[in-house]
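Encode chain A's predicted structure.
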Amino acid sequence: MTDFTSIQRIYFLGAGGIGMSALARYFNALGKKVAGYDKTPSALTDQLIQEGIDLHFDDTIDSIPEAFRVKEGTLVVLTPAVPEDHRELLFFRKNGFSLLKRAEVLGIITGNRKTIAVAGTHGKTTVTTMIAWIMSHTRESCSAFLGGISKNFNSNLVLNTQSQWIVAEADEYDRSFLHLHPYAAVITAMDADHLDIYGNLGELHKSFARFSSQIDRNGFLVLKKGLPVQRSDHECPISTYSLNEKADYFATAITLNETVYTFDVITPAGTIKSVSLNHPGLVNIENAIASVAVTHQLGCEESIIRESLASFNGSQRRFDYVLKTGKLVFIDDYAHHPREIEATVRSVRALYPGKRITGIFQPHLYSRTRDLAGEFARSLSLLDELILLEIYPAREKPLKGVSAESILRHVTIADKMICSKEELVDLLKNKKTEVLITMGAGDIDRLIEPIKNIYR
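Encoded structure for chain A:
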């Protein structure tokens, strides 16, 4: 399948996922009939329903709309999170429907346009969204498939059918990003993750090397300085970026005024002066440098880069201020890998020196907890107080001997505990908290409003 012209109906198994929902919105905006299943309702599935997408939450064949039970003209898109014994999946397979993974669909869509793909074990959502926001202010603009809900676009999809450009988040899980053949790409990080897929760090690195080899030779790769990407001489040019270490693109003269950073960006062509970022955290300056490295090489004017970053509002669940009062700061973040947790906590510490920082963390996946328990513990030990929730299993079944305790036993701070989701709100009611961070990629986001209501 090279395009979707013969497809009238698209059915999504796992429609509420961030990547799947962006595709559902894409096809819905193009006038296709879109329906699907997800395990549980959420704010995102509510929005999809309001946009006219027919969703249900019980795994029964009778719940599939009748029109979508017709094989001809129907495409079924699935996410790896859907189990093999899922009744609807079995029905579609038994009856010979066309089935594609989410990554395959994104590969087909982007294959017909000039694509900028942002890969990395962390940081890619923010960099993708920054690039899309900058490019949206240029004459050519862009479409974008984002890994989070952008506060500027108020969506995880940006659609401009007149533009030749697509900015897309490139997910390394299940080697999904190998379906992309971009004009240009960014690699932000290559830390040990998804070892249930790769087995070891070396295999993960090989996959990133293969991804980089798929970049158009006339395009370019923007690489976080120091990442060990092995490449051949005939592949596209590389430029490096860093926060403040010398690279092709890096920041200097960094100042902080309350939560606004101002800095200069050193580029191979000179210095972009007085760039402001009202999106806190040193890690986000580094993300901004990556976005500058891409858009600068595409010929974006310095004034557009500067103005776009100054108005960038971030994404939901990426260093996301929930409350900011004289007594309390409450930040929510998607951090679910030790390096992300460390970056988030250090950024908060820099913004609020001397304040007591309480972190609530929900581990994501048994396999990730098993593989990285010691690293999680070291990162979480940067907090003053840790409240650890039990593991969110997502697509996995429990692993013997793996639990939140696997992390907690290695945490070195004294003020640490495990708490259930059901008991968390009552626990917080009796605590005096100065700075609170919720972190995790599971369903911890459903606790944000109940926690917020305590402090209101």
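Residues 241 and 249 are 5 Å apart (CA to CA).
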